[in-house]
Amino acid sequence: MSNMHLKTAKLFIDGKFIDSKTTEWQDILNPATQEVLGRVPMATLEEVDVAIAAAKQAFKTWHLTPIQARMRIMLKLQDLIRTNMKEIAGVLTAEQGKTLADAEGDIQRGLEVVEHACSVGTLQMGEYIEGVARGVDTYTLQQPLGVCAGITPFNFPAMIPLWMFPMAIVCGNTFVLKPSEQDPLSTMMLVELAAEAGVPAGVLNVVHGGKEVVDRLCTHQDIKAISFVGSTAVGTHVYNLAGQHGKRVQSMMGAKNHVVVMPDAHQEQTLNALVGAAFGAAGQRCMALSVAVMVGETKNWVNQLVEKAKTLKVNAGHEPQTDIGPVISPRAKARVIDLINSGVQEGAELLLDGRDVKVNGYENGNFVGATIFNQVSTSMRIYKEEIFGPVLAIIHVDTLEDAIALINANPFGNGVGLFTQSGAVARTFQNAIDIGQVGINIPIPVPVPFFSFTGSRGSKLGDLGPYGKQAVQFYTQTKTITSRWFEDTQEKGEVNTTISLR
Ligand code: NAD
């Protein structure tokens, strides 16, 4: 791989990496140092239109390319990503802030989607039934839609683009990707590998930018479907705007994830899981643990939870032994601090305060240390708003039923966890809880790619998820064929004005 994208993020249009003609650029900053790593263009609308036109043209031949040939490119891509994993992780940590191990995890979770795309053939098969009437058979085709677009957030610059374009293009679509403008460099390395793997010119295109570029994708007549992952406000806007323009849309959005701790849970394992899920990636995961719901006697476990959280090391992501890296930007840090301040003002008990953390050698980094609030109530901002930082709120309830009622009353529905050693309790919980992704003794239940990401309620708009079988449904149109072949050429038949087939 070359380092050609390490300074200026290029556009990728019709198989070529090109410099944008825009006059508007944004710096890409290292969140641990504020060092400028490069810059990203806010592409012009003409450039967006050229990318869409290239994708439209490429679709004409790409959707006719045999599915085995499309899968073979994915096979090559998975090999290239694996080979270049460390190099991509280095860039990802520099621009995003997460630890190197977590950066590799980010790439690995996306890589698994590419692996799954290598066997899409069995998922894109249609259905067939013979003899629905005399000489009449019915069958379905899962046909690609045309040009699809993806809009991705800053927190997983490898995994989330890989949720989208491999499945979209292996199904026979062409694609325009709009990565996060905050950390596009690692995403561009993946795009470079896709080109090297043999994705033909125009099949995958990349434009950079913000609202203007996104709105163009949502309204352009040649875009058939939009996958969005990001905040609730923007995801709702994208869903509404693209929906009004007749597109198929899926928006995976913000969250407030709870874990319920039952008194019979394995204490040590549970507390380790809570600390990892709340503070890993500095809390910047859509599936991060935000609220611990302690049932009954587990209220006595809180001190030990705090002790464990105190041992976490805050440092730059590339430093060895770092547990918590910086949050993405000074603005994100200011938002997290403001929310912590609101928790104090609203009367929550601040057991661990990460506001004033100092990191030697990285005085300019956007660091926030692990923060724990006890005695949180549902009317507080720290309960109601997605914090997207290393902040855990603790709520105490008496029973499992109380915990379920509390969580079901929260508008978000991305992920939830339960810690218990009772199968019966787990079964009651999984049935009664109204959240799309449930972990039983698993704090961050992100499904593997053979399933789909199934966030629900306020965390998602649209029916189908971004990878797995649901992605094949999302990126294809079911066409149903009803055909009749006359085996008896002598038969005359008769005019029939009823609806039945006979
Ligand atoms: P964001 O909504 O700010 O940005 C997402 C994308 O939208 C980016 O590409 C950005 O350039 C673009 N964008 C920003 N403002 C826009 C506007 N006004 N109009 C049109 N487009 C705009 O999100 P983020 O801060 O990058 O990511 C964090 C959010 O993403 C969190 O809320 C997190 O929960 C969510 N997220 C959700 C999932 C999920 O699967 N549900 C996964 C990861 C992240």
UniProtKB/TrEMBL annotation:
Residues 18-481 form the Aldehyde dehydrogenase domain. InterPro entries: Ald_DH/histidinol_DH (IPR016161), Ald_DH_C (IPR016163), Ald_DH_CS_CYS (IPR016160), Ald_DH_N (IPR016162), Aldehyde_DH_dom (IPR015590), MeMal-semiAld_DH (IPR010061). It holds the Pfam family Aldedh. GO terms for molecular function: methylmalonate-semialdehyde dehydrogenase (acylating, NAD) activity. The keyword Metal-binding does not apply. The keyword GTP-binding does not apply. Its EC number is 1.2.1.27. Keywords: NAD, Oxidoreductase. GO terms for biological process: L-valine catabolic process; thymine catabolic process. Belongs to the aldehyde dehydrogenase family. This is methylmalonate-semialdehyde dehydrogenase (CoA acylating). It comes from Acinetobacter baylyi (strain ATCC 33305 / BD413 / ADP1). The gene is mmsA.
